[in-house]
Hints:
Structural class: alpha/beta
Helix content: 25-40%
Largest sheet: 9 strands, mixed
Order of helices and strands: HHEEHEHEHEEHHEEHHEHEEHEEHHH
CATH topology: Spore Coat Polysaccharide Biosynthesis Protein SpsA, Chain A
Number of strands: 13
Shape: globular
Radius of gyration: 23 Å
Number of domains: 1
Amino acid sequence: MPWDGALGLHLLLLLWLAVVGNIFCCSAAKDDFKAKELMDAINDGYQLRLTNWNEAIMNDTHSNLKLERILWSSKPPRFQFTVFTQLTVNRLPTLFNMCTTYTGPMSAAIFVSLVQQPPPGRLQGDQSSHSVVPSLAIEKLSSPNIVLVEEALQQVQEFHDRVESNPDMCQLDIMLFYELYDSEQARLLYPVNYLRNYARLQVRTRLLAMIDVDMYVSHTLSEEMAQEGRVAHYESLCTDRRATILPAFEPTRPGTKGRIMAMKLSKVSKSQLEGMHGRNKEAIQFKLRVFPRGHTPTNYVRWFNESQPYEVSYKRFYEPWFITCDEIMPWYDVNFRGYGMNKIVLIASLNYYNYTFWVHPNAWLVHSPHLDTDVRKLVAREASDVNKHNAKLPANALYRKLTLLFGKVKRGMMRGTYDPWVDPRMMAVYDKVSWLRPPPKLVGTPTPESVFT
Length: 453
């Protein structure tokens, strides 16, 4: 029989589609198996119990997170560099926007906080009382909390489906966690560093960066990472423990207009950004008005005039976002919960572990403005009471706890004995999941006391 060119081409196309479909099918099935294996390992040994304010503040008890669902992207990664982040379910719209400005792999730990009445005979946590209530397990979630978890699952699934259906958006892996608290007050103990660490555990690339969900990533970073050899270039820098700093900006206006401007600022060119930068213009250095020391070491004046990376020195309270490799990135210290010092300590540990800081010349972040959280308001109020009015805070005050923890960290770094506190349950996962990359094993160098003054 003579070969029909059109028919032959059609058959070849069908064969190609079958092969590709089989590859993606097998790959997706393999990823589903890995995701379930990881979820089972994280939840191994989990017991329902209520988190109590005084117990957490005064006895340093751990957060008690339950992983409810893992959803992994089936889209092939656009490049081998992952942004990881954390958020509450109500901030899914912000994650969606972040997924439009950053178009590569992303790992997100999403959180639901639940309040449930303690068992009979147990008092609720109360900041007015300094007594520590023993931790008690409970038998099951209450019916209202079961509904809240189911609603969160549905929201996250629909959200993930929406991101998956758009080929131009990020390739999103999600973990959905919840924690049970015995009071609205205890609910303020948001496990920010736990969530960051779990999101990082889920990362499937060597090169990574923790970027908070309210920071939009400039289009230039995705464009650069998609270029041949650029990921390998940044991976090569990890041998020298170089952290690539991403300068951060914020719109000068708050609210809806500020959020619209934040998105715009992530999409302009660097030269356009320079024309929009200034106190009486559209953008300024992040936190310039309230906490300039957090980002001033980046040297924004120099940044606008540089076309090559440049080195900057670590300064006390520096807290930039950065790019590095998984095997040399320190863990976030989970003793820091709620609000305050959580990222500052991580950057101090980079200095402790002999990192150098190099500013990226052509990529940046833009903060999307939002209302302050209740816990941030609490810490700010307590800090003001101490710093402006010389007030003596009670033993279970969060700001007092933060200052004690930071003092302990400083002493550990000055002595060369600091090691970030990490959830033991999370670290046990490495013994149960063979395909995970080994956790970092870092040795620090004593930090001079002058660095912290």
